[in-house]
């Protein structure tokens, strides 16, 4: 069955190619057939513009493309956007986003991301809240480079702007259902229309279930079932001719299984009672939970790795035309509860088991005043306030210790910023841009640090760090022709400091990081808009880069800690191409390349420090080494694209599509931590009667059953390496219908 479906999937492009000649005449008469590269309207700069008129490096993915590209969570964007990586740290629900090499790798939930995630202009400052299902999406915009003047603090890497579908004036309804390998299914639906005069509404929901693809090496029990459900309601009220109110509320719950780990080599458990051989089967894993861990997690002794998360978001967006300007107010509240158990050693023994718990509350208010005339000066001024609290921590069993290690904390954040973003049209060709933002922030962490039960918790200590920084952007846009735009900019981006809340006896803060970004690019439509070619080059001057490092406590020894690198740099570029060589045939390609290194960095050498001190401490001798000139740890290149062909044949509309992505190896100074390069291929084929309101199709993901890994775990030492593998080939059917 697998071989038959793989052969059929690979044949999709062959079918499409052989049909070009015979279907050319028919395709010219089809309304759904692409004849030129279409104009895309975006809100990347907080106002509607054609994407080709925006002088920033920008990728846009339409909502209708998400299923074709296999994008079911925000993490999957890495397979469709150049120079972007996302991974859920150690298979858990805490993702880390990186754009152009800017981004951290940590598994605690309390620190800000370097990439801002926004849903309908509302920020998700803690990325653990972004793992719900993507549904009823109009488009996703990925902006590369610092975006502080428009999107606020902590966007040094860039921003992901998710825009959901708005209510419609006419009645509409529809659903999309798919079923696939391992009994996984997804059903999404919506209803939209006028509720009352001047009041429009939209209700959308989705559920994802099944899909368990891993199994326990000892018992055969399955792992990997999805269990996600979400619902969103939107209201648009025209309160008057000049005032519009948009209300939105989303509730989501995720009770899915966690990710299982594989053993990369022979694994001897603590005490030497059992030695597991290296896992050779791709889908094999293992897990177990101790009585103490089960008690704090509130589960039984038969519990599998799991997530039990739920979140609720509500927002109000009010826009008023004052005549001389537009006033926009965005008020948002978000609450999220995390309960998650992971088994990072991949065995039934309690070598490295972790239970995370968090309660997150975020309130935000933004006010913007912007010009609304057609004069040469386009201006915007605004203010933003945020109040955030995140309480939680994690329990762990380590190396078979029956006693739980607990690290708990409570964090509060208060931030206020004022900003302006302006452009001035000097003439019909030249546009100048200037933006500035001042941000002040206070972060407080209350924690007693890490302690081992049954010892009583140590006294709570308060730690503080603040931020008073300016970010900004200067740029120009120059129309080379009516269909070609050159742009250049220099921007300053700032990311907050924070606290290490794992493996620490203290929570001394790390400093904010600052990026000075230089960028130049071109956007062009060629050959009567049959070919769109965009490209950009960048150079980043990085100060106080936040990285995973070490510190030593005199009595407890080596501890992981987020530290700052004084100076480093990154440079690279992207090229994105969309080509319509024949009516109905669309070819998209993208490539991203980046490289970077530390320019000034003296770091603790753990091996030499351990060797210089007694085995059981105290650790009074600290040895550092110079890591200047060392390559930064990220993939240098990724390449991707898609080929799609739409044509009509004998009263039917057909579509064949394949998309692919290559990712270079994830570099590490430790050879055992390098994750190999890989290719991923997906394909789709769909058909519908011409003019019908339904469509049916086949899909395949990871067509060539490529083995690739997300993260590797070295918590139990280099002699016990484990990894979180990603899923292999899956395939299924899809039915879409609109009313």
From TrEMBL:
PROSITE patterns: TONB_DEPENDENT_REC_3. GO terms for biological process: iron ion transport. It is found in: Cell outer membrane. Residues 446-465 are annotated as: Disordered. Residues 52-159 form the TonB-dependent receptor plug domain. The keyword Nucleus does not apply. Residues 305-703 form the TonB-dependent receptor-like beta-barrel domain. Residues 1-23 form the signal peptide. Pfam families: Plug (PF07715), TonB_dep_Rec_b-barrel (PF00593). Keywords: Cell outer membrane, Ion transport, Iron, Iron transport, Membrane, Receptor, Signal, TonB box, Transmembrane, Transmembrane beta strand, Transport. GO terms for cellular component: cell outer membrane. Its main location: membrane. It comes from the Bacteria. It is a multi-pass membrane protein. Belongs to the TonB-dependent receptor family. This is Outer membrane receptor protein involved in Fe transport.
